[in-house]
From TrEMBL:
Residues 614-633 have a biased composition (Basic and acidic residues). This is ATP-dependent zinc metalloprotease FtsH. It comes from Intestinibacter bartlettii. The chain crosses the membrane at residues 12-32, 116-138. The keyword Nucleotidyltransferase does not apply.
Length: 667
């Protein structure tokens, strides 16, 4: 089956252009005399009479203003025979008799009163019309390639897509995991249904509601659900569509958008990524984007101008609320700020069930287990997990999705697909196994640590050569100082195992070092978990929904002390991890040997061996390994598993180790 490529850039069709040009040349040759068809030479009237009387003239054409004649054929000079001569017309009554006497063919042109009109149309109007047609065609082709309007008169028109209730097809039933946001928007829906009861008491509905939250949490879906519930027209436009090359065009589009909205009231206008045009003004920099500022000013004016009682509600979405202009957020414009945060445990379970409705799922699916393993995931990521599970079921030749498909899809989203064809030497596999078991042992021997869910040394397409997954038994929104310190110790457990067993260490702990340093620095600068600095704020975070860019707000001397404090925390955690592994060195060898033979073990198997309930000698000897013993160096990128945020993490505690080029890291 062949699929047509959509949105493919259209190239200029030179064949059509030259075809039209050839047509113009042909029309010109048909209607206009060619300059090469005749060669005219001017002579005086007496010369003309002399040639007539001498019998050399062959044919004469007379008009009211001139006489055109040709000479008789002469075989000696063919070019001379083609030449035509002309002279001015002189009133001569004997001219006709002279021509007759010398056997000259002559005609008299009759002047047509409409001939000048025909000549004007053929000479001027027709060529001009043809070139206007070609220019219009070229303009349309260029505007399609640039994605602009096909008509210059449409530059100020809004590109908003208008949906009616039947076309959106979304209701609050399609939105899960956002109960607080739905409750805040229910009042808007009720106002659009029953505006009179609000008018009777004198209440005015908020003109605008701003949806803020991380990407993929369902802000656009919520806006469509509001329109679906209210059964009113829904205008959808992106903030980037207001940005034009010409100053003032964006403002014109804003005016046109609100004009259309007032005509179709009650309705909902949804502006996605409003930070594109709503950024703060007067940043102190010279110059600036006049087009964006004029568009923002027009938006502010339009929001002040329309009557809230008409039922026009403005919804906007952004994941950068800190960059918006304060004038846009004041009461009377965007009165309400509705957080659309990452879902909690119950929300993730509900989202998984919503996206699983259209998929053939097994009856014994444990959605709660998948939800616990995906703490910190957005709605879009959960939908992707369901889809990855369905794709795996098809790949395995099944007609329904099983629990193992969803569990594998979680790992695919986290660390990528398995690289079963990767080749690693036996020594490096041994280092990776001890490294991962080191993480797991340190985590298991500490209190207030998440239980180990899975340990594997199968490489992944993300570059991970192995990882240890921890899954909390319940939902956590806070982290104590001891829990943060234990997490750092768990991160250092892999390096400590390498040092203890092999007497050296590799580049496999590069990601562990990065994550441990982030947590230790956050403990000191943001969470007041340092005795020296107490509750002093030393760091500010911007763009909290887009990764959180941090910057220090302290003197250089204090920054040096912060570095010393962070180093002290990491060293203490590293020492703790080393002591735990030394006390359990025998179990470290036993579990590592078991992991080397199995390549993947579950948390239950790990705890059974650790507690002495299961012997590592009972191994399936027929189990095939997925990697060979041929030595090769595998380089991979870092895989980040801990996000900076209120809880310091995404709670998907996966320790990932890579062999990377040291020179590349130094760069």
């Amino acid at each position: 089956m062949h699929f047509k490529e959509k949105n493919k850039p259209k190239h200029f069709n030179y064949f059509n252009f030259f075809l039209i040009l050839l047509l113009v040349v042909m029309l010109n040759s048909l209607f206009l005399p060619s300059i090469n068809s005749r060669i005219y030479e001017e002579v005086d009237y007496s010369t003309f009479l002399t040639q007539v009387e001498s019998g050399n003239v062959d044919q004469v054409e007379m008009s009211d203003t001139e006489i055109v004649y040709t000479l008789k054929k002469n075989g000696q000079n063919e070019k001379q025979n083609k030449k035509s001569y002309y002279t001015g017309y002189v009133e001569n009554p004997d001219l006709v008799k002279t021509l007759q006497d010398n056997n000259v063919k002559f005609t008299k042109q009759v002047t047509d009163e409409n001939s000048w009109i025909v000549n004007f149309i053929v000479s001027w109007i027709l060529p001009l019309a043809i070139f206007l047609f070609i220019g219009n065609w070229l303009m349309k082709s260029m505007t399609k390639r640039l994605g602009g309007a096909s008509n210059a008169m449409q530059f100020g028109k809004s590109n908003a897509k208008v949906y009616v209730e039947a076309q959106t097809g979304k209701t609050f039933a399609d939105v899960a995991g956002q109960d607080e946001a739905k409750e805040a928007l229910t009042e808007i829906v009720d106002f659009l249904h029953n505006p009179k009861k609000y008018e009777e008491i004198g209440a005015i509905m908020p003109k605008g509601a701003l949806l803020v939250g991380p990407p993929g949490t369902g802000k656009t879906l919520l806006a469509k659900a509001v329109a679906g519930e209210a059964k009113v027209p829904f205008f959808s436009i992106s903030g980037s569509e207001f940005v034009e090359m010409f100053v003032g065009m964006g403002a014109a589009k804003v005016r046109d958008l609100f004009k259309q909205a007032n005509e179709k009231a009650p309705c909902i206008v949804f502006i996605d990524e409003i930070d594109t045009i709503g950024k703060k003004r007067d940043t102190g920099m010279p110059g600036g984007n006049d087009e964006r500022e004029q568009t923002l000013n027009q938006l502010l004016t339009e929001m002040d101008g329309f009557d809230g009682k008409k039922g026009v509600v403005i919804l906007a979405a952004t994941n950068r609320p800190d960059s918006l202009d304060k004038a846009l957020l004041r009461p009377g414009r965007f009165d309400r700020r509705i957080p659309v945060e990452l879902p909690d445990l119950a929300g993730r379970e509900a989202i998984l069930k919503v996206h699983a409705k259209g998929v053939h799922m097994a009856k014994d699916i444990d959605y709660n287990a998948i939800a616990r393993a995906t703490a910190g995931a957005s709605g879009a990521e959960l939908a992707n997990i369901i889809n990855e599970g369905a794709l795996r079921a098809v790949k395995m030749g099944r007609h329904q999705v099983l629990q193992e498909d969803l569990e594998e899809s979680v790992e695919v989203v986290i660390a990528g697909y398995q690289r079963k064809g990767a080749v690693i030497s036996q020594r490096e596999k041994s280092i990776i196994a001890y490294h991962e078991v080191g993480h797991a042992l340190v985590a298991a021997k500490q209190t207030e640590s998440a239980p180990v869910h899975k340990i594997t040394i199968i490489p992944r397409t993300s570059g991970a050569l192995g990882y240890t997954m921890q899954v909390d038994e319940g939902e956590k929104v806070l982290m104590t100082k001891q829990e943060a310190f234990n997490k750092i110790a768990t991160f250092t457990g892999g390096r400590a195992a390498e040092e203890l067993i092999f007497g050296s260490f590799t580049t496999g702990a590069s990601n562990d070092i990065e994550q441990a340093t982030k947590i230790a620095r956050a403990m000191v600068t943001r969470y007041g978990m340092s005795d020296d600095f107490d509750m002093m704020a030393l760091e500010t975070v911007t763009n909290q929904y887009l990764g959180g860019d941090a910057s220090l707000t302290c003197s250089p001397e204090t920054s040096t002390k912060i570095d010393q404090e962070v180093l002290s925390i990491i060293k203490s955690a590293h020492k703790k991890a080393m002591n735990i592994l030394k006390e359990n060195e025998e179990k470290l060898h036993e579990i590592s040997k078991y992991l080397l033979e199995r390549e993947t073990i579950t948390g239950e198997e790990f705890m059974e061996i650790l507690n002495g309930e299961k012997s590592s000698d009972k191994v399936d000897e027929n189990k095939e390994t997925t990697t060979s013993e041929k030595e090769v160096v595998i380089e991979g990128s870092e895989f980040q598993t801990v996000d900076e945020g209120l809880t310091l993490e995404k709670k998907i505690d996966v320790e990932v180790d890579n062999k990377v080029d040291l020179d590349k890291d130094n760069k």
